[in-house]
Design brief:
The protein contains four helices and eight strands, in the order H-H-E-E-E-E-E-H-E-E-H-E. The protein is an alpha+beta fold and about 200 residues long. A hairpin with a 4-residue loop joins strand 1 and strand 2. Helix 1 packs across helix 2.
Length: about 200
């Protein structure tokens, strides 16, 4: 069973337990007619399924405001800003790679890239709630790593924190940019593929 189905089932069971308590407290157990009892059970089951499905879909939000035309990350300030032209739409505190100082150059160096990139993909099933991809490595990144006999690494994303189990509340990723899950829901809805992202030191 997939994780979201397990979550729905768990939510549904919890809801039914609450419903049973309500029924007992309100005296509905005095219903003797079999059809009446079945009707009450069907209503509670339908509500439980709806409750579980809404919980699963809740991380996907709708955004109808001004388009995000540019994303700017300031590593030293641990801030990410979403812009429409020259206006800041949103600003978030961020976590970076565990070796945050300096640009990412090689695979597994724990650094977050620096430079101009683009948002080029998204993952609704990310282990870190939701994620959007950054186009590292570019041609220059790959050429430099190759000149050093190394691999440049990749899989750089902006993502949430859901599956992080470490104790470090500062910089903890392998080079990605992390925000809180609720903030990531906004970022995922607001930032479209193809949006430029400038990552400053």
């Amino acid at each position: 069973m997939s994780s979201w189905l397990r979550g729905s089932a768990s939510s549904g069971v919890a809801f039914l337990r609450l419903a049973a308590g309500f029924v007992r407290a309100s005296g509905l157990w005095i219903l003797q007619n079999k059809n009446e009892i079945q009707a009450v059970i069907r209503v509670f089951l339908a509500l439980a399924v709806a409750f579980g499905l809404s919980a699963c879909a809740s991380k996907f939000r709708t955004y109808k405001g001004p388009a995000v035309t540019f994303v700017q990350v300031d590593k030293s300030a641990r801030k990410m800003r979403l812009f429409h032209e020259n206006a800041v739409l949103k600003e978030y505190p961020i976590s970076l790679g565990f070796a945050a100082t300096g640009p990412k150059q090689f695979e597994n160096d724990g650094k977050t890239p620096e430079g101009l990139y683009f948002i080029n993909r998204r993952n609704p099933d990310s282990r870190y709630h939701l994620s959007i991809g950054v186009s590292y490595p570019n041609a220059l990144d790959m050429a430099f790593a190759e000149s050093q006999g190394r691999k440049p690494g990749g899989d750089i994303f902006i993502h949430g924190r859901t599956d992080y189990r470490g104790g470090n509340r500062g910089d903890w990723t392998w080079g990605c940019i992390a925000v809180k899950d609720r903030q990531m829901e906004d970022v995922y809805a607001m930032v479209r593929d193809g949006t430029p992202i400038r990552i400053n030191p």
